[in-house]
Write a structure and sequence with these properties.
Blueprint lengths: L1 H19 L1 E10 L7 H19 L2 E9 L4 H9 L4 H18 L6 E4 L3 H16 L3 E11 L4 E3 L17 E10 L5 H10 L4 E2 L1 H12 L6 E2 L1 E2 L15 E2 L1 H6 L1 H4 L9 H6 L4 E5 L3 H15 L7 E4 L2 E3 L2 E2 L10 H8 L1 H11 L6 E2 L2 H31 L2 E3 L8 H20 L3 H22 L1 H4 L6 H21 L7 H8 L21 E3 L12 H11 L3 H5 L12 H5 L3 E11 L7 E7 L2 E7 L7 H4 L3 E5 L5 E3 L2 E3 L2 E2 L1 E3 L5 E3 L11 E2 L1
Bound molecules: 5'-O-[(L-methionyl)-sulphamoyl]adenosine.
Length: 663
């Protein structure tokens, strides 16, 4: 009997617990660590983070997955160029990526790397299972091949009939390959997309996939390669490595322990609630990925959301175009909360949006410093001034209160609806409607006039109560987007994380009973836009592009004419200093014959100004001048760089006059 009761109690507890524990699984794509990430990459991650934080606040048990996609020919080659093994090469960048996510307050629950042992084992198992059940078969890949680049191309990818990468002749080749029967799943995929209107969002992506790909007919997919080694070997045929996309897509389930003994997370979190991807990789996620899952007999994710791009001057950000924006510089200058706010507020999620420094600073000034910053500082300052920082009771209401409370109620519910649809920018608009309404309320009620007459004390208390309670509600609502600002507001309202900071409390205006206010730091200081724009642009100069060989294209022979275009001369360092607020840079005066030039170089880690003075160096003299941290740099000092990035300035081997030409 006792046993039975204990059993019953445990069962009931479990039922109640699982009712209560709602789960939410959200993923970002896994990033290529072949480059450092730019603000465009941060966009996907910041959006996923806002959603993960929102769901946690709503009581969900969240799994937020991100990571890195580390295999493939591109990475193998980049590593080679840097004289590193592929593993060393990716290890270095992954440290940098994790650091970036830390500075941007990305609260991922798991970071997966496709070089993780556990992941590789799962990929190998998936490949084998699909092969054994007949969904993968061996055949031959026939196509155009560039031997030096080890790359396959289709006819229309060629440039003037030659390799688009190195401009050399391509040849027709046949390579033994494994193929996945993608075509077999075509009809099921069409049916799934048509019957589940929420599966692929926004709507435009559905039409794109259905009309441009699925209804045009799918071909089987080549899923193995033999021409390079950096990948997961096919377990039963080791000269093949698994195609990078099959390897990469599997991360979403390998991270949950799929096909392993530790598959509790898979049981708990799969199918994913939302998989966020940029629009250019929707095809892989809305066609190949579901087809693989169908072949494995697993459920499909509930939603794939293909967001738009952050563009610069009408084009996608790209390292090769040289128009990338480094998020860490922005975070350092304006805080991660400000950058996150801008990304999610400025661009309608799903559409493309332009990034400009000016738009960023304008938004910081208008929305953060003016609207939110002023609401906070005015509310706190008035409670301090008129009530010595302590407000007891709720005072009396005035004729504007009903409308303020209505606006709050309405916009709390709009925010919740918009968050469910991943409409981040509209959710933020809803929150800012509350903030602007509260600021207007200050102008309507004019507390400074009420304060003149002691008889208005209760009325004044009522106004300040509404403001403080409104501010508290706003501070909770911004938390998913701006994780560090709320605690700065709470410190000034003297509340700690707990009952008064729970999301549920924002549904009923009036949870705050006693208010203590304590003036603190200005949460978003106003920026002098003119001055800041110049300083920011200087800070964003691509120093690395000028002074490193990291971006080397595959070696293509150049003619002697090309070489002689570069003018090299011997110069002597006559003055040298550190550049303020730039720990990598030295600024030197170099005497080259009769002229003296100013040159900024990224060598401060390797030479002190004192030891650099007096050295003879080699200078590129016909490089277009460029401003670095506000200093016009008129040339470049040649350095040798080893695989660890150590730099040594190149010097003439024997004494020679400065100004001597190098040829
Ligand atoms: N490794 C693949 C994804 C494999 S997922 C199984 C990949 N990596 S990526 O590093 O190139 O891109 C990662 C994400 O960053 C993609 O969703 C991509 O759309 C996003 N972005 C890269 N540049 C972007 C912008 N300029 N704007 C917005 N997002 C962009 O693709």
């Amino acid at each position: 009997m006792i046993n039975f009761l204990v059993r019953l109690y445990l069962d009931l507890k479990y039922i109640l617990w699982s009712e209560k524990m709602k789960t939410f699984y959200i993923t970002t794509p896994i990033y290529y660590p072949s480059n450092k990430l730019h603000i465009g990459h941060s966009y996907t991650t910041v959006a996923a983070d806002a959603m993960a934080r929102y769901k946690r606040l709503r009581g969900y048990d969240v799994m937020f997955l991100t990571g890195t996609d580390e295999h493939g020919q591109k990475i193998e080659r980049r590593a080679q160029e840097e004289g590193k093994t592929p593993q060393q090469f990716v290890d270095d960048i992954v440290i940098w990526i994790k650091d970036l996510w830390k500075t941007m307050d990305i609260s991922y629950d798991k970071f997966i790397r496709t070089t993780d042992k556990e992941h590789k084992e799962v990929v190998a198992k998936i490949f084998k299972k699909l092969y054994e059940q007949g969904d993968i078969y061996k055949s031959e890949y026939e196509g155009l091949y560039c031997t030096p680049c080890e790359s396959f191309f289709t006819e229309h990818q060629l440039k003037d009939g030659k390799c688009p990468d190195c401009a050399r002749e391509v040849e027709k080749v046949k390579e033994e390959s494994y193929f996945f029967k993608l075509s077999k799943y075509q009809d099921r995929l069409i049916k799934h997309i048509e019957e589940h209107p929420d599966f692929l969002m926004p709507q435009t992506r559905q039409n794109e996939m259905l009309n441009n790909f699925l209804k045009a007919g799918l071909e089987d997919l080549c899923v193995s390669r033999t021409s390079f080694k950096w990948g997961v070997p096919v377990s039963f045929d080791e000269k093949h490595v698994v195609y990078v996309w099959l390897d990469a897509l599997s991360n979403y389930i390998s991270a949950l322990g799929y096909m392993t003994k530790n598959d509790a997370d898979f049981k708990k979190f799969w199918p994913a609630n939302v998989q966020l991807v940029g629009k250019e990789i929707v095809r892989f996620h809305a066609i190949i990925w579901p087809a693989i899952l169908m072949a494995l007999g697993e459920e499909l994710p509930k939603q794939i959301f293909g967001h738009g791009w952050l563009i610069i001057n009408g084009g996608k950000m790209s390292k090769s175009i040289g128009n990338v924006i480094d998020p860490s510089i922005l975070v350092q200058r304006y805080s991660s909360d400000a950058v996150r706010y801008f990304l999610l507020r400025e661009i309608a999620f799903g559409q493309d949006g332009n990034f400009t420094n000016q738009a960023l600073i304008t938004r910081i000034n208008s929305d953060l410093a003016n609207d939110l910053g002023n609401l906070t500082s005015r509310t706190i300052a008035m409670i301090e001034k008129y009530f010595d920082g302590k407000l007891i009771g709720k005072g009396t209401e005035n004729e504007f209160d009903a409308n303020v409370q209505e606006i709050i109620k309405e916009n709390v519910s709009f925010t919740e609806e918009n968050m469910e649809k991943l409409f981040f920018n509209t959710a933020l608009e809803n929150i800012w409607t509350i903030i602007r309404r509260l600021n207007k309320y200050i102008d309507e009620t004019m507390p400074w006039v009420l304060a003149k007459d002691e008889a208005n004390k209760e009325k004044l208390a009522g106004v300040l109560y509404t403001l403080a309670e409104g501010l508290r509600i706003v501070s909770i609502m911004i938390e998913p987007f701006m994780p560090t600002t709320p605690s700065k507001i709470w410190a000034q309202l003297v509340i700690t994380k707990g009952d008064l900071t729970n999301w549920d409390t924002i549904h009923n205006f009036g949870a705050l009973t006693e208010i203590t206010a304590k003036k603190g730091e200005n949460i978003f200081p106003r920026i002098d836009i003119e001055k800041e724009l110049t300083e920011l642009e200087n800070a964003q100069q691509p120093i690395e592009q000028l002074q490193s060989n990291k971006e080397l294209e595959p070696e293509v022979p150049i003619s002697i004419d090309d070489f002689t275009k570069v003018k090299l001369k011997v110069g002597e360092v006559i003055e040298c200093d550190k550049v303020k607020k730039a720990d990598k840079l030295l600024v030197s005066k170099i005497k080259i014959g009769d002229e003296v030039r100013t040159i900024v170089s990224g060598i401060a880690k390797f030479y002190s100004p004192e030891e650099f003075i007096g050295k003879k160096v080699v200078v590129v003299t016909n490089l277009a001048p460029v401003k670095l941290r506000g200093i016009l740099s008129e040339g470049m000092i040649l350095c040798a760089e080893d695989k660890d990035g150590n730099l040594v300035a190149i010097a003439p081997e024997k004494e020679i006059a400065n100004g001597a030409t190098i040829r």
